[in-house]
Amino acid sequence: MQHSTYMTLFLILALSIATGIALFKKQKYPDRDYEELILRTKSWWWIIGLVLAALYMGQMATTVFFAFISFLALKEFYSIAPLRAVDRRLVFWAYLAIPVQYYFAYIQWYGMFIIFIPVYMFLFLPMRATLIGETKGYIKANATIQWSLMLAVFTLSHIAYLVNLGRFHEQSGFIGLVLFLLFITQSNDVSQYVFGKQFGKHKIIPKVSPNKTWEGFIGGVVTTTLLATVLAPWLTILSWQQGLVAGFLIACVGFIGDVVLSSIKRDIGIKDTGTLIPGHGGLLDRMDSLMYSTPIFFHYFYYITKDFVG
Q1: What count of Cα atoms within 13 Å lies in the side-chain half-sphere of residue 175?
Q2: Which pLDDT score is estimated for 27?
Q3: Reported pTM
Q4: What are 92-97's contacts with CB under 8 Å, separation 24+?
């Protein structure tokens, strides 16, 4: 049995235990409200089920799946961002960038993949906005649309590039590499939350995210780094030492992604970015850490394994 299959079974087992605990608590303590916890576990079943289904259908299906995730994330961003009516013409081109960016990831055209959005779309969108002829709110509109492209499309498309990169553990394939990134990132979110709840006293950025504490951050970093150290040689072609560095990077930048999205929500004055995922909020609420951890992990992995011969 391949290592990625073992990891899949572990995820299903862990989620089954979490679901059992939630249902047990609801039955044992009927006077307490566990609806949000149950909703969260139900949503995780759907999330993990859809991700695993895409992964086991192959590289093309996984590429298309994450392109669709980028579309939903971009759509959600535009649903909360203050845009002008005329900006719909710019939004059209932003959506059109998704299949182009993911196509470059699929065919492994690194040069165009890495500059298409940061350079060509960066130059094109202001030109298109100028042709519209509306100058009021011009800077804010262009900044919003371009930043949304970077967060929702450019960052997440690095997963698709990893999927098609061909630098895989022989017992895990590309599935193991993707599961490593996703599991370590989400484990960081969970461990920082748990340590913060149990031991958190010293707040890091109280005006942005009052629940984020140094105790939670450090506990999450240590836990995530240890998990990555153990899992990297098992699911990827990284050594345990390289996995240690990867885990540390994912933990730190994942935290940054979390608080960056919190800043966006506080600026707009909302609690969640949407209602797509019951118990979790919107897609961006669930993907905030991943949008930062993915490109950082990608570039670390890409250059550390440049001499790999499959």
Answers
A1: 20
A2: 78
A3: 0.92
A4: 93/121, 93/124, 93/125, 93/128, 94/121, 94/125, 94/145, 94/148, 94/149, 94/153, 95/71, 97/121, 97/149, 97/153
